[in-house]
Specification:
The protein is an alpha/beta fold. The protein has seven helices and five strands. It has a five-stranded parallel sheet. The longest helix is centred in the last third of the chain and has 16 residues. Keywords: Oxidoreductase. One of its GO terms (molecular function) is glyoxylate reductase (NADPH) activity. InterPro entries: D-isomer_2-hydroxyacid_DH, D-isomer_2_OHA_DH_cat_dom. Pfam families: 2-Hacid_dh.
Length: 130
């Protein structure tokens, strides 16, 4: 990779059901060269060497041994949500890859929703709305 070339960031897709939000694309493109899973699979030999990071969105792309073995320059996997139980952290670490996540990203909104559900249940809100 050349000195001025941005590091490759593997994403499942842009937009769609399991793709990164269009609103995130401009920011990510300032720092990374975005590579979708489709692009990687279509040209694995060339693209696999460019990928230095993976951005997981909705647990996609799936991180397995085959993917990790195919990305020789992978340094970090960034998980977009809370929790990493969908990942084999020992497997990831065995490839020397670091993990990043946002453990408190939705703590407040989760607590707010929980309290709202408790109140709705206690006040029988759904029954009163029929």
């Amino acid at each position: 990779m050349g000195g001025g070339e941005l590091p490759g960031l593997l994403v499942n897709e842009i937009g769609g059901t399991h793709g990164i939000l269009h609103g995130h694309v401009a920011f990510l493109k300032k720092h990374f060269y975005l590579i979708t899973m489709k692009e990687l699979l279509e040209n694995r030999t060339h693209m696999s060497k460019k990928v230095q990071a993976i951005y997981l969105w909705w647990h996609k792309p799936v991180i397995d041994r085959e993917l990790l073995q195919s990305l020789p320059n992978l340094k970090v996997i960034a998980n977009s949500g809370v929790g990493m139980d969908h990942l084999d952290l020992k497997l990831v670490a065995s490839f020397g890859v670091k993990m990043a996540n946002a453990p408190h990203a939705v703590s407040s909104s989760t607590a707010d929703t929980g309290m709202a559900l408790l109140l709705a249940s206690a006040r029988r809100l759904v029954e009163g709305n029929i």
